[in-house]
Amino acid sequence: MTGEKHTHTAPDGTVYEHTHVHEHTQDGGHVHAHTHTHANTKAVLNRLSRAIGHLESIRRMVEDGRDCSEVLVQLSAVKSAINNTGKVILKDHITHCLVDAVECGDMEAIADLTEAIDRFMK
């Protein structure tokens, strides 16, 4: 297994770092893996924590027998928060990981992104 550390600077000056790992399989093929740090990791974690807290409060609403329409409105808010978090991750992925993958000739990354978008959009 070999790893190369990459650093990219976005047009806004944000610096992204990651390690691109190439692992060779016994049958002569190879596997690509990325470990990376994004500038928005903390923001994504904060968004997820807020969504988790919100979801827990919705669970309490259901346990307390609150009105179904109130529960549905709150569920809608959580769905929106999750979708917006996904957009942040997708933007990071496109501007950082995908650019690097194309530079390295890793066309499998484009197929992986397409599959991830299809699943996210369901």
List keywords for this structure.
single chain, 122 residues, alpha+beta, three-stranded antiparallel sheet, 3 helices
Q: Provide the helix percentage.
A: 55-70%
Distance between the termini: 35 Å
Which strand-content bin applies to the residues? 15-25%
Shape descriptor: elongated
Mean pLDDT: 80
Rg value: 19 Å
- DSSP strand count: 3
Strand order of the largest sheet: 1-2-3
Q: Would you tell me the structural class of the helices and strands?
A: alpha+beta
Major beta sheet summary: 3 strands, antiparallel
**Total helical segments:** 3
Low-confidence stretches: none
Could you characterize what this model shows?
- This protein is α+β, with helices and mostly antiparallel strands and 122 residues long.
- 60% of the residues lie in helices and 21% in strands.
- It has three helices and three strands, in the order βββααα.
- It has helices spanning 41-63, 68-103, 108-121; strands spanning 2-9, 15-24, 30-37.
- Strands 1-2-3 form a three-stranded antiparallel sheet.
- Helix 2 packs antiparallel against helix 3.
Summary, kept brief:
The chain is α+β, with helices and mostly antiparallel strands. Helices cover 60% and strands 21% of the residues. Helix 1 (41-63) packs antiparallel against helix 2 (68-103) and helix 2 (68-103) packs antiparallel against helix 3 (108-121).
How is this fold's topology laid out?
Blueprint lengths: L1 E8 L5 E10 L5 E8 L3 H23 L4 H36 L4 H14 L1
Antiparallel strand pairs: 1-2, 2-3
Helix pairs in contact: 1-2, 2-3
